[in-house]
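Q: I'm writing up a methods section and want to include an example of the input and output format. Could you take the sequence below and give the corresponding predicted structure tokens, formatted cleanly so I can copy it straight into the document?
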Amino acid sequence: MDLPAVGDTDDTAAAIARRVRLERENRRWSLAELAERSGVSKAMISKVERCEASPTATVLGRLSGAFGLPLSVLLALAERAEERLLRRDRQPVWCDPDTGYVRRAVSPQNGGHLELLEVTLPAGVRVPYPASAFAFQHQQIWVLSGRLDFTEGGRAQVLEQGDCLQLGAPSDCVFYNPGPEPVQYVVALTRR
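A: Here is the clean output for your methods example:
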């Protein structure tokens, strides 16, 4: 038995409709492909995306499962879809306790296509990442200040203030600050 429809207002239903369509389009899936992956009919998915039907909890559960997202995450993304401004004092900041590497999530957390990260890498710090960290995203690195030595799959690049590098196919990478001062850079990410 299906549970009652999620959301009491037209705004909630519209936000869910936009989020379902965005998740499907981000993955470049057709309606048929999402239907096959979720077990929800193409007709129902189409009605949900056009806000002609309010999805039940079961339908949302199947769709979120197909997207590889917990239902709570899918709903949270839908609820935050209208949050287009994220003030600096509300941007999540993480600091690596071992290296002092600081990562600020600059972009509003509404599941948009582009994500911006501001990174401060202290002097003398080297941060390696495996290729798997880059498998599902395209990235560019834009240096705001200082010097960044960046190695991508064995190819070394020296990036200085104002330089911007588009990363290639996923490979092991190393971010290194050889200078006496912190280097600050922006990482721009989009999903593959």
